[in-house]
């Protein structure tokens, strides 16, 4: 069994390590909003448990055991998000904070039964893949809306942030999972994007917003 703090460190290292070979202490401390000295202490503790490898000045990286633990936490988190959204009617801007608490219930039996109860979903409410019991995650081709071709119909399939205010903004604009749209124009001056929803509503969004909305071709 691992503490909540240990699991949070392992999950954060996993996410940071997707973009870099080793995770530096300062980056990890910033991610978890703690002091570098505290992060170093926890890193050494997790290394002693065989969950990561640490080298001073070079940072840390998860071992196979650490990666397996991280994927298990992510699996629980995303399954709970799906449950909260689909079964309890939570908004997609609300589920992350609640799932952050539920993900620490360390019961494989509960997790597997929850997965079966939900019909073995492959993606969470934000479009992120849900690991299966072995850690495998389904891949899906997606493109940032900022790079999507003009006049080509698309469907929203994911977002690049789970920030509550960001998701609330998308909901107000009716830009949600499964929303269908067409990019009318990319403005070179400030990289804003004009788009039109299948409902007929049209508006312009910022470059930052467009970079954090992912779309895919509409399936026939």
TrEMBL record:
One of its GO terms (molecular function) is DNA-binding transcription factor activity. It is found in: Cytoplasm. SUPFAM superfamilies: Iron-dependent repressor protein, dimerization domain (SSF47979), Winged helix' DNA-binding domain (SSF46785). Its main location: cytoplasm. The keyword DNA damage does not apply. Keywords: Activator, Cytoplasm, DNA-binding, Manganese, Repressor, Transcription, Transcription regulation. Pfam families: Fe_dep_repr_C (PF02742), Fe_dep_repress (PF01325). Residues 1-63 form the HTH dtxR-type domain. In the presence of manganese, represses expression of mntH and mntS. Up-regulates expression of mntP. Homodimer. This is Transcriptional regulator MntR.
